[in-house]
Amino acid sequence: MPETELSEAARGSPPDPAAATGRATSTRPTGAHRIASAEVTGFFDALPHGTVLMRLWARFGLLMGQQLARVVRDDHVFLIVMAAVVGTTSGIAAGALLAWIDYAFRLFPRPEESSALVRWAAVIGVPVLGGLAAGGLHFVLRRLIRQPLVQSIPAVIEAIARKQGAIGGRQAVIAGVGTGITIGSGGSCGHEGPSVAIGAAVGSVMARFFGLRMRWHLAMVGAGCAGGLAAAFNAPLAGVVFTVEIVFGGAIGGNIGTMSVFVPLIVAAVAGTFTSHAIRGEHLTFTTVQHGDAMLAEMGLFVALAVLAGVLGTLMGRAVIGMTKWFQALKAPVLLKPALGALGVGVLAAVVSNDVLGGGLPTINEALQGHLGWQLALALLGLKIVATALTVGSGGFGGVFTPSLYIGACLGTVVGALANFALGPAAESTAAYALVGMGAIFAATMQAPLTPIVMIFELTRDYQLILPLMLGCILAVFVARRMSPRSLFQEVLHQQGVVLGHEAEVEVMKRGHVADLMRPPPRTLSEGTGAAEVRRVALDEGRSPFVVDDTGAVVGFIDADLLAKRVLHGDVPADAAARDLMSDVQLALLYPTDTLAGAMLASARAAVEVLPVVDHEHRLVGVIRRGDLLAHYSDKVLGQQEEAVHMHTTGGAVHGHEVGLGKGTILDHIVVGRRWAGRTLADLALRSQTGATVVEWLRGDAPLALDPNAPLQHNDVLAIVGTREQILAARRMGPTHPGVPVTPPPMRP
């Protein structure tokens, strides 16, 4: 939201190094400084950089953002303009990536069919050469640039969920160069993942360059994703749906907020598609499918295709995850791992067919034309899964979108051949089954049905098969979710130990173990302990002791509260022993390796404060208290949720989102600049001048009383409630002086 007068005064405020680098520092900034750096809008000082040139470049970007905001003077229009800029730039980046991939195909030598020896040498040697180059890029990232690799969808999801969308430009450049090398040399992967990652990096870099407020930063990252995918595949609708369903859906559980996030995705996708048309011309990625009208009798075969796709899509994801874990555990230099994966791909191609090399668009088009034989399709079906797992798992640059479409086309070809055998010439063509198989495998791998439905339709412009396509995608996701609770991208993040915000409540308690919170064991009582000793321990010490047998195994416990009631009523015989006074409640025994989620469930069912932790002989090794479980849950889950709520409702947080209060009323925040510093709320008279009402006054992290005669200070934060027009009018108010009325500018519709 443009803050032309208020925020301009904040220049000169101490910068926040953590905000500049995207990494936490050892010293937490003060509340005022944290607020100032988190609310960067293009009107604050440039954050520090290493060189004078970089500082001048950052200042130039901030000034451009300021001037653009002053010209537009409307936050909706400003956001749309920025989304269009990000979408256009993402389209240019996607076009450059595709051009580089085409050049890389010509850069690497192709196998010669005239000589078997030369063919084997080229088919095996060229991918290995590309793998060595990819390993070199990994080395550059880790040792020289010292930044993590962001070239895939999971990395983008993690950046949105945990790093406020911070992605470096150098990471995108390395990802683009590596993608061209990997695909051009024959790696079994596609360019769609890097296209999205590069688009996300474009959005992140441009948001920082123009100094956008943090609440718009994620919107620009999403706009870059939508624009990059739309430009790469000439599919604007698919770009929007993909970003909402997979990227934002994976990062924040599908909660994309208001239209201030959704509209930029549409604008960026349209801008990216127009840019792609200008660079490459309007084109269809895949050839037109020749088919008739699907018969009702064939719906059973389409259902079978969807079920098989659900199984194969899950197996493909498991193969990629398994191969990734294997290469991570392999004791070999990072430089060599992509080359080892490429060696495996080259051997598969040399033994069977060159069709397993690269993304496989020619093979997909053959299947869509009905020219792919079912025997070859059946062989390529399994080999492509292995080749993709080798390429991606070993560290090759590329995504799994195109390979999943490849596998789906092969599966559809096989099922289509079966349909022709069973139903004769009246059956649909194998091309129709290949098309549905492409969408079904994609949906099963990503566990997202909407994106492939829209994408396949846009890639082929074929509406006649929309019903089998929808049925296949939905059923494939249904089957895949029965086989695995997480999609490929979610499983990748899970293996990396990344817990997304909407998964924290479950994962935090599942990943913790009883041993983490276990306390030392208290003194126990034997079964034959007399009533006097039991009363002393249970009543005088005020605890419920555990009772053990002759071998030391826990056999029960004595409820101190229940024992006290029995003593008052005279129901405890003098000769009673501990075994006679034990509670009738079935005691749950925990092991140190049990999860905290299981311990919390056992505590709730047993309705006791302390549970015993035992070894395999049921001997007491410790105890776990219900209070410790609740405290852990509160710290790890509720504390994060409270922080998230704080971030959405106060200005001193990372995101600074506005909050809709219903019927056009919103809650937003204004950072006080020097031109308002020293004035009072009475001097400003915001309510009488604009209609907006101040409901909270923060100084650092501390709320202040709303004293109308107390002076404001630089970097104070005012929480204001009103309509969007009223808050915009408050932001545009100029400097004030005591006793001088303020005339607000005319409000815009």
TrEMBL record:
RCK C-terminal domain segment(s): 652-736
Keywords: CBS domain, Chloride, Chloride channel, Ion channel, Ion transport, Membrane, Transmembrane, Transmembrane helix, Transport
Membrane topology field: Multi-pass membrane protein
Transmembrane segments: 77-100, 120-141, 218-244, 256-279, 300-321, 341-364, 376-398, 404-423, 435-457, 463-480
Gene3D superfamilies according to UniProt: CBS-domain (3.10.580.10), Clc chloride channel (1.10.3080.10), Regulator of K+ conductance, C-terminal domain (3.30.70.1450)
Every CBS domain range: 582-642
Region described as Disordered: 1-31
Subcellular location: Membrane
Superkingdom of the source species: Bacteria
Name under which the protein is recorded: Chloride channel protein
